[in-house]
Amino acid sequence: MKTIFLVFSMVFFVVSNAQNKQSYQIFNQNGKKVCYKNIINNSQKSDVLLFGEYHDNSVAHWLELEITKDLSEKRNLVLGAEMLEADNQKQVNQYLKAEINQKKLDSTARLWPNYKTDYKPLVDFAKDLKLAFVATNIPRRFASLVFKNGFEALDKLSDEEKTWVAPLPILYDATLPGYVKMVQEMGGHGGENLPKAQALKDATMAYFINKNRTENSLFIHYNGSYHSDNFEGIYWYLKQQNPNLKIITIATVSQKDISKLESENYNKATFIIVIDEDVTKTY
User: Fold this and answer.
1) CA dist., res. 218 & res. 21, Å (int)
2) Which 8-state DSSP code applies to residue 281?
3) How far apart are CA 233 and CA 198, in angstroms?
């Protein structure tokens, strides 16, 4: 009877675990499974955390908020995001100080369509804790200028407009694999200016991260994963500006099977969050 009970218990355990589906799994850059606490523990020794997300992924957005909450209990934080543009910093600051409400922010800043569901919780968290939230991205019209006319187009910006981009001239390495791949994937249709527009965004986000971070604090930056994957993009520019920065990167990837990291996703970041491809999209 005792043996039968033991066998039944083992079968129940296996079946229960098989039915206990997970939506995500975290790996290190070498493909080894790690736990959520690894991100929290490693971030306690870092200056910058670049959280690379999929803009429409509900699990990635939830993890951004949860990681930020947990780190706020251990570190002084400064927050920033690609999704807010530098020339809207005044409005963001007014909202954080409760000088304007959400309706006014909606009408005066260029907010992404999914702002209320995906990024407002992060900004409101900063507001509640009186944290700085930095609008790190370039005004999108400047990226369009570079795409059409190259970096030279930035020389025509006014003095005020130049405060919303990284200092000119923009450092640029066309041989970085991410920029090379961008040209290849577009079949050359974007020309040599397409990766330049991307580099302008990366350089500017890195500039505002480095400018606004404070000693003995952690700057958490939320950006599309492609802006920091493979330790390029924002990461590369941060290292050019300050080689001594301790930076952790997170990449988001989607897989059908989250139990192991696919080989193409190795070394994509310090930590790779693999999310089930069936997870609900936010838009």
Assistant:
1) 33
2) B
3) 8
- Give the separation between CA 233 and CA 48, rounded to whole angstroms: 14
Which among 136, 118, 125 is positioned nearest to 228, based on CA atoms? 136
Q: In a 10 Å sphere around its CB, with 0-12 CB exposed, 13-18 middle and 19+ buried, how is residue 141 labelled?
A: exposed
Residues in the chain: 283
A 10 A CB-CB count for 116 gives: 12
Task: Give the whole-angstrom CA distance, residue 150 versus residue 197.
Answer: 8
Phi-psi category of 201—alpha, beta or left, where left has phi over 0 and alpha has psi -120 to 50? alpha
Give pLDDT tens digits for 73-95.
999 999 999 999 999 999 999 99
193-210 residue pLDDT tens: 999 999 999 999 999 999
Amino acid sitting at position 206: A
- Please answer whether residues 267 and 246 qualify as being in contact, where contact means their C-beta atoms are separated by less than 8 angstroms: no
Enter the pTM of the model.
0.92
Residue 178: DSSP 8-state:
H
Host H or E run for residue 255: strand 247-255
DSSP 243: T
Read off the amino acid at residue 177. P
CA 108/CA 245 separation, integer angstroms: 35
Count CB atoms within 10 A of the CB of residue 280: 9
The tokens of 156 are what?
């025509």
Q: In the predicted model, is pLDDT for residue 155 greater than 50? A: yes
Q: Where are the beta strands (DSSP E) in 131-205?
A: 133-137
Distance CA 79, CA 223 (A): 11
Percent helix / strand / coil, the chain, rounded to 5 = 50, 20, 30
